[in-house]
Amino acid sequence: MAITAKDVSELRQRTGAGMMDCKKALEETNGDMSAAVEYLRKKGIAKAEKRADRSTSEGIVGGEVFNDGTSAALIEVACETDFVARNEDFGKVVATLVAHRVQSTAADLDTMLAEPLSSNAAETVAEFVKTASARTGEAVNVKRTARFDAGANGQVGMYKHHNGKLATIVQITASSPEVAKHDATLELVKYIAEHIAASAPIAVDRTGVPAEKIESEKRIAEEQARETGKPDAMIEKIATGKIEAFLKDVTLLPQPWVRDASLTIAQLVADHAKKAGGEIKVDRFARLQLGAE
């Protein structure tokens, strides 16, 4: 019989097992829900999933720049204790997953986890992670991943903190391949990646800030103004001013550069674009910090 997404979802809710495990269990049992539950228990997957529910606040954020500096990938691999995170075997697990991400163009984490592992097509990425969990005796899971491919006119930069718990990547587009490869541009993407690690912006500019976030901040500002007894005629103006300050604080381009607060990131980009002899636009960035959302 045909296995539907609804069937898979129901089995996931009943067992807590992963999507691909549930799909396989249903296929093996011809869609019999009770038999599928038993199948998962026999395979020991329920126990593995129980381990996976444990808190994973330690781990490593791994990453790599490749394709001659035009592509980059990050992956956050979590475990339970710093002891395991610092273990050589766990480091090898992270390295294997980073190597897979370099090969994978999966659009999201679930798709990547369902892929055959690049170094061993006999198992999926998710199965490899479960094996790592069994070997360490701790919950091990991949929490987030990001991959950028900038193309011939682009460049990516990466920053990885020395403790392995924070890494960033940034993608720019230049007016030509020559500008993209210029030393000034290569320096720029490294500076921006470092800045993102330190300042944690939420978007490149105001157009990238979710409308609901702006509305939420506006409501808070209005309520705060109201509680101080400000007249209604002033509340809107006060709230607008606070929103402007908020956007300046949380978006990348208006932020003061961490190395020289007399320059904003927008000015830093303009200065390096001039040195490179063209134009440079910051497209996007990703910041993965262990345990953060």
Structural class: alpha+beta
Instruction: Report, as a whole number of angstroms, the end-to-end distance.
Output: 39 Å
The strand count comes to 10
Low-confidence parts lasting 5 or more residues at pLDDT below 50?
none
Radius of gyration: 23 Å
Helicity, in percent?
A: 40-55%
Structure description:
There is one protein chain. The protein has helices spanning 5-15, 19-28, 33-42, 45-52, 82-85, 88-103, 109-114, 125-136, 177-181, 183-199, 211-227, 232-250, 265-276, and strands at 58-66, 71-79, 116-117, 120-124, 141-149, 154-160, 166-174, 256-257, 260-264, 280-289. Helix 2 crosses helix 3 (33-42), helix 10 (183-199) runs antiparallel to helix 13 and helix 11 (211-227) packs across helix 12. It has 13 helices and ten strands. It has a three-stranded antiparallel β-sheet with strand order 1-2-5. A three-stranded antiparallel β-sheet has the order 6-7-10. Strands 3-4 form a two-stranded antiparallel ribbon. Helices cover 50% and strands 23% of the residues. The two termini are 39 Å apart. By secondary structure, the chain is of the alpha+beta class.
Structure at a glance:
The protein has 293 residues and is an alpha+beta fold.
Provide the descriptors you would attach to this structure in a database record:
293 residues; alpha+beta; three-stranded antiparallel sheet; 10 strands
Task: Indicate the topology.
Layout: H1 5-15, H2 19-28, H3 33-42, H4 45-52, E1 58-66, E2 71-79, H5 82-85, H6 88-103, H7 109-114, E3 116-117, E4 120-124, H8 125-136, E5 141-149, E6 154-160, E7 166-174, H9 177-181, H10 183-199, H11 211-227, H12 232-250, E8 256-257, E9 260-264, H13 265-276, E10 280-289
Antiparallel strand pairs: 1-2, 2-5, 3-4, 6-7, 7-10, 8-9
